[in-house]
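Repro case for the chain-ordering regression, as requested:
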Amino acid sequence: MYNLFTNVSAWMIPAIIVFIPLYAALRRKVPVYETFVEGAKDGFGTAINIIPHLVGMMVAIGMFRASGAMELMLSAVRPLFDWIGIPSEVLPLGILRPLTGAGSLAFTTDLIQTFGPDSMIGRIASTIQGSTDTTLYVLTVYFGAIGIRRTRYALKVGLFSDIVGFFAAIFICLYIFG
Amino acid sequence: MVNWIWLFFIVASVVVAAVNGKMDAVTQAAFEGAKSGVTVSFGLISIMVFWLGMMRIAEDAGLLRKLAAMLGPIVRMLFPDVPRNHPAIGYIMSNLSANLFGLGNAATPMGIKAMQELQKLNPDPATATPAMCTLLALNTSSITIIPTTLIAIRMNYGSANPAEIIGTTLAATFVATSAAILADRWYRRKSPPPQVKSKRRAGITTPSPDQGGEAVV
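-- result from build under test --
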């Protein structure tokens, strides 16, 4: 089953890369190379526009983690987790996941390494990591690229779904693997 | 809200670091963060340039319009204020499909391109439209079918069944995405679209700061 999935993933991108220009050239007579270059030009500027936004966010998140402020925030919630019966080792993931993709992936890997991939903690961490994306990164990049300054309710919606997803992942794992 | 979160992170970090005596680490983390912000952006250049080139071919060949037509009803329900034949729909569809199949590096350029198309429909370029918020909500909750990275990590650490988390991830992702869509709907109804305001304000050149939404950056 896993082989099937990895094969599908491995073939997907080459298939797309071949299909799009081939279809365009044969069916629509599109000058494929020139069109590619024309469209690709936009990519550079867009990526450069994102730099200030990403630097601002990553500085704040880096400081927050290094200062111990995040750990302080977690220690306030930890007793509640113990009381409900949720393994509190996964708690930092709840805060890391929406903030930093690389940071939460590193933390998940560490949990898997420490407790084993088939432990309850390993399964919960894998599920949390896989089920949502890095909200703050997505917001910074997508809105930064087009210069949106007033994000209205977008962040609230993203963080709300992160919280729901975090607890859903925990309770689904406790139910399925428990 | 982003303003306040950003400010909170920085102020809290310095205050806590002062108490813990971790000032050096915080200073270092700040510049490390700045560096990784640039590194990540530079990493984006190559995939943005490549996929935007590919997608331009797809757009000129009419493939995006086909994709949009295929899944039209769902998109019309989620994005009622985007015209049916607008190119944004095609890019939104490709962004969502790329997410679905776990093609992370293709999803971002297509999402950004979709945002740029939505920006063309935006009467006030500094304020997010409801459609942009919906697209963002779908991307932050990320509907992924196969979490390939995690399966690889689990395999690496000798899991007996690395793929056993596909079911739980799918269920959790479904719950998170449903929550995102519901919350988005709720806020969309609660806050009036910016179009109405800008029509009323047509001709006024200085935008007033209290014009709905939250000031960010």
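Ordering looks correct now. The CA atoms of residues 170 and 176 of chain A lie 10 Å apart.
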